[in-house]
Amino acid sequence: MPIITIFPGTFCNEDIVLQEIIAHTGYRKVTDNDLTDEAARLSGIDASKISRAFVSRTSIFNKFTHEKERSIAYLKLALAEKLTGDDLLLSGFSGHLIPKAVSHVLRICLIADMNFRITLAAKAKGISDKEAAKWIHGQDEDCATWIHTLFSLSDPWNPSLYDMILPMNKTNTNDAIQLILNNLKKDVLLPTEQSRQTVEDFRLSAQVEVALANEGHQVGVSAENGAVTLTINKHVLMLSRLEQELKSIAGAVPGVKEIETCVGKDFHQSDIYRKFDFEVPSKVLLVDDEREFVQTLSERLLLRDMGSAVAFDGESALKLVHDEEPEVMILDLKMPGIDGIEVLRRVKETQPGIEVIILTGHGSEADRQTCMGLGAFAYLHKPVDIDVLSETLKQANEKIHSQKKKSGVS
Known about the structure:
- This protein has 15 helices and 13 strands.
- The chain is an alpha/beta fold.
- α13 (340-350) links the parallel β11 (328-331) and β12 (355-360).
- α2 (32-43) crosses α5 (67-83) and α13 (340-350) runs parallel beside α14 (365-374).
- It starts with a strand and ends with a helix.
């Protein structure tokens, strides 16, 4: 039987359609949450972190951590395992991860005009039309970002992505269900030997992508009958060395018969290829009101493959801690507004797993004792030797990963 994917706009009568299709076909429903849970099991990454791949806001640390790309790689692997079975109905974002080459898939989009959706949302949630509109726009922004991430398209309802687009404000739900059932019977959607091979190709490419991601690499991966192609889309100075490393990793994946590397369309752009280094922290938050100092420090850490974000006051730092969950903070004490000691106190109260390195030019011995008593990892004075700071950051990173291993969290 063909696979069904349904990508609905929020409040487009999707629940009714899904229930009736399952009732008529006996298909097994697979949701984004199902695949997120399976990806979490396969990766050891917390499911809440993987689910962030579906939201519009990407972490400011992502260009260093590749967390979103690694999450998508594991979602592909979880999905590929599901696709080996029949009678599947995938609801949500994940269906878009199925390659176009898998031909036994009926790809459906449910959408409606905004007034129709606002009316349904306001009634269902008991909110005003204005609140409903704001909420729906936020959901649509997530959809648009997801589609842009995968296909570089700005419109999540682009007709090129679907076999059927059903305007639910103009289509009776019973008629929509019947249209889906009628199309499901078409011979062109029946699984063939070739289309099932494309599922196996997808599974192999997902396995290779995960293997590469686990070694800190982010490249495009495709597979065909055991032949794997790796596409490098960011500029790298020592291309041959990178190609050799990628081939070594991919070649160890069972089922890979041959490997080819190539450069993609973005290879010659200014973005630099950076392998994620698990030995150093890549989510460092620098907090200091001396802008020139902190920006220079950020650049010097980047040369050592440590990605950082910058905050110039305590209030901004606390917001970034809440939104971005850095691994390590480098914190000055003397700042306008909320000072460093208070920032340290609040961070350790709410997120004690963040390691805080105090780096100050004005602190006293009493300040040092206070900070260490509050749980600071280290207390350093300006000017600091960058090698000393780098080593301290590595030690903090080792402590973080040791704690994660003990708790079984990735």
